[in-house]
Amino acid sequence: MTVMTIIHGRSRDIGFMVRRLLPAASRQAVGPFVFLDHMGPATFPAGSTEGDVRPHPHIGLATVTYLCSGAFDHRDSLGNLQRIEPGAVNVMSAGHGVAHSERIPADIRAAAHPVEGIQMWLALPRAQEQGEPGFVHYPQAVLPLISQNGSRLRVLIGTVNEQHSPVQVPSPTLFADLQFLAAAHVHLAAEYQERALYVAQGSVRVAGTVISAGELAVLPEYADFTVSSDAAARCLLLGGAPLDGPRFLWWNFVASDKALIETAKAQWQARTFAQVPGEQEFIPLPER
Predict the structure, then answer these.
(1) Has this prediction a pTM greater than 0.90?
(2) Nearest to 95 by CA among 120, 122, 132
(3) Which pLDDT does position 4 carry in this prediction?
(4) In a domain, 95, yes or no
(5) 109: which DSSP letter?
(6) Main-chain phi, psi angles of 262, to 5 degrees
(7) Which end of the chain, C or N, has fewer beta carbons within 10 A?
(8) 283 assigned to some structural domain
């Protein structure tokens, strides 16, 4: 087995720095994942709003938020208020339209605690992209953990080596957090057609290829593989079934039909889009 593609993260400033891996010129999606940002680590001044993600809209996707450190306060137009902390998985399905904000809690600012995590979008199947929105929070305690040979692998979504996550998503999806505490190796069975490995810290080897921090390695379809490291490292495994057709991405909108994006743009600009209770700020549509 050989690694198919290495994608190098691109720095983006969204009020704080993120490393963007998907979409990329060489790869638009891996399984249902059409967007992948590695946020931080970053600290934010007490008493400020620096780092807050103000209310913004989504259609046609499900957000997956997973923190390594720090915390977010999630608020959405469904009325949900949820503190997101490290190790939990949070899935917000936008369907025909949802808005949300993600703000840095005051206690995290005051302690100068670094915020670091992963934000991803899953393109919803075409049959569900105009469905009802929803939000579900899964605490770390319900997510399976496999500890062996100096490694810890937590199954966040889907199945890894016959361990099943309870997280519900609308299409076959894989998401796992693999940490090496020291030199070790982990063998992973071929359970999904499309997969990629993102290295968040350190470096690992797959099929003789070294994958360094900030790189996303797209792996061959339906192949067993072994991940190894000579020292502490952390990587994320993601993938699933291929999309059921092409998707268009514009700002925070994902759709199989450009007309759906145009409708969402008009609704947001006219402020007839769902609003987040308790939020007053408004982000105009981008000019592009």
Answers:
(1) yes
(2) 132
(3) 78
(4) yes
(5) H
(6) -60, -40
(7) C
(8) no
Instruction: Express each pLDDT in 90-125 by its tens digit.
Output: 999 999 999 999 999 999 999 999 999 999 999 999
Q: What is the dihedral of CA 64, 69, 71, 75, to 10 degrees?
A: -10
Q: Which two tokens stand for residue 88?
A: 């939990």
* Rounded Cα gap, residues 266 and 272, in angstroms: 9
CA separation for the pair 283, 169 (Å, rounded) = 29
Supply the pLDDT for residue 96.
Answer: 98
Cβ-contact 276, 78 below 8 angstroms: no
Choose the weakest-confidence range: 120-124, 162-166, 177-181, 284-288.
Answer: 284-288
Please confirm whether the linkage preceding 23 is cis (ω < 30° from 0).
yes
Residues in the chain: 288
- Helix, strand or coil, per DSSP, at residue 266: helix
Q: How many domains are contained in the chain?
A: 1
pLDDT in tens, 196-216: 999 999 999 998 899 999 999
- CATH number, position 155: 2.60.120.10
Q: Is residue 255 part of a domain?
A: no
Structure token digits, residue 197: 């490995």
The span from the CA of 171 to the CA of 189, in Å, is 19
The verdict on residue 286 lying in a domain is no
Range of the domain at 30: 5-240
